Amino acid sequence: MTQAVEVVVFRAKEGISDHVLTDAAASANAEISLLDGFISRDFGAADGQFIDIVHWRDMAAAKAAAEQVMKLPTCAAFFELIDTKHMTFMHFDKVALSLPKNIWRGRTPVEN
Q1: CA–CA gap between residue 50 and residue 39 (Å, rounded)
Q2: pTM to 2 decimals?
């Protein structure tokens, strides 16, 4: 069974601060994490854009969740803050990439 990755890139509606939108996204975690097939969620922001990445057990769970989430109150409040004219919503099949064991060649990855 192949995991699914949901990716949403968007902007906040005019007049909505980054802080308000980020708080609403965090509040939605409780409801999203209870949906069947949920694995994990990552959220990021840069230059007025946001990215919401959710990993699902499989594509069927991802698509079912996309319909169910619209009916959840905290999620609906979060979605109300999103400028849907500047939104991209996509589902992908997760692809496992094999990296060579010597990828760092004696170096360590850069830490944030």
Answers
A1: 20
A2: 0.83
Report the domain count for the chain. Answer: 1
Residue 69: CB partners within 8 Å, gap ≥ 6?
A: 31, 32, 35, 75
The per-residue pLDDT for range 20-42, each reduced to its tens digit, is 999 999 999 999 999 999 999 99
Does a structural domain hold residue 102?
Answer: no
Q: What is the CATH number of the domain that holds 57?
A: 3.30.70.100
CB 22 within 8 A of CB 10: no
User: Do the Cβ atoms of 5 and 48 come closer than 8 Å?
Assistant: no
Nearest-angstrom CA–CA distance, 37 and 10 = 24
Going across the sheet that includes 38-46, the strands are: 38-46, 49-56, 4-12, 82-93
Q: Is 11 inside any structural domain?
A: yes
